[in-house]
Write a structure and sequence with these properties.
Elements (H helix, E strand, L loop, with lengths): L3 E6 L18 H4 L2 H4 L2 H6 L1 H17 L4 H15 L3 E6 L5 H4 L6 E2 L2 E8 L5 E3 L19 E5 L9 H10 L2 E5 L11 H7 L3 E6 L11 E4 L2 H15 L1
Parallel strand pairs: 1-2, 1-7, 2-3, 7-8, 8-9
Antiparallel strand pairs: 4-5, 4-6
Helix pairs in contact: 5-9
The protein binds ligand BV8.
Length: 236
């Protein structure tokens, strides 16, 4: 039976690809008011402002590419599977750089920037174009109901049952590039500890819940993640 690893990633893993993080010095939440652009109330109040916020991030993503950290996790997934193990990759990120780096079966618990949802009928469809109030629903044809398929504050994260189950089956829990400040994701490490699972944090600097981790490795993800993957695959 091979090694089961649960990896949780956050904005820090995409930082060196040029996508902004949220809570660093010049992070997204220093430029935008979270309550205005990442809550259902904000969308109800000013949908055009919210669509503009996500359109700007779609434009940034169109200019970005995967970095060695994304590619290393894709290699880890392939090599663990070849040995009868598994990588469960859960990301808080809404970008698709894990997939662009060769990742597969990525669990986007906060949704996906490259998907649009109709908040009328609930249909979702791949979409990298700029959203507007005229974007028609690809399923019901309604106009003015298009929103990004992302989980806002106060909304329920996606695929939580699968996430809970994968966490219980893991031999190792690793958080990469996350400040540990958004729940329920930030609570996964405590759950892992209660289950007796070894935990490791890989980040640029200690996160809000660094003390909860058995092991901590700090440095840029593009350097630390490939080195960590080499070690895991070497030491099996
Ligand atoms: C919910 C939208 C109920 C898409 C986002 C307790 C329990 C449950 C809920 C709560 C709770 N307390 C409070 C809440 C409510 C709330 C919450 O957590 N608020 C916070 C602010 C206190 N949570 C919710 O509303 C969630 N919903 O709880 O529903 C429920 C609960 C359980 C089960 C069922 C239902 C919904 C949260 C989702 C909100 N949506 N994004 C988008 O626009 O992107 S959250 C947003 O923050 C992003 O998704 C982002 O990924 C996420 C977390 O941030 P990080 O990824 O960690 O990014 P950050 O900038 O903070 O940190 C980057 C890190 O990288 C830093 O540490 C930095 O050092 C490091 N770094 C930087 N460069 C590098 C690097 N590391 C390595 N290399 C580098 N080069």
């Amino acid at each position: 039976m091979g090694l089961n690893i649960f990896v949780l990633t956050g904005a820090g893993i995409s930082s060196e690809s040029g996508l902004g993080t949220f809570r660093d010095a010049s992070g997204i939440w220093t430029q935008y008011d979270l309550s205005e652009v990442a809550t259902p109330e904000g969308f109800a109040r000013d949908p055009a402002k919210v669509r503009a916020f996500y359109n700007a991030r779609r434009a940034n993503l169109a200019k970005a590419g995967p970095n060695p950290a994304h590619v290393a996790l894709a290699r880890l997934r392939r090599d663990l599977a070849a040995r009868g193990g598994r990588l469960f990759l859960c990301t808080q990120n809404v970008d698709d750089l894990h997939e662009q780096g060769g990742g597969a079966d990525v669990v986007h618990m906060h949704g996906e920037l490259t998907v649009t949802r109709c908040h009328g009928c609930g249909a979702t469809w791949p979409d990298r174009e700029a959203l507007s109030g005229e974007t028609p629903c690809a399923a019901c044809g309604a106009v003015g109901t298009a929103r990004p398929h992302v989980v806002w504050f106060g909304e329920t994260p996606l695929r939580m049952d699968e996430i809970e189950e994968a966490l219980e089956e893991a031999d190792l829990f690793v958080a990469i590039g996350t400040s540990g400040s958004v729940y329920p994701a930030a609570g996964f490490v405590s759950r892992a500890r209660r289950l007796g699972i070894r935990t490791c944090e890989i980040n640029l600097a200690p996160s809000d819940n660094a003390r909860a981790f058995d092991e901590r490795r700090y440095g840029p993800a593009t350097e630390v993640v490939p080195a960590w993957v080499d070690e895991v695959l070497r030491d099996g």
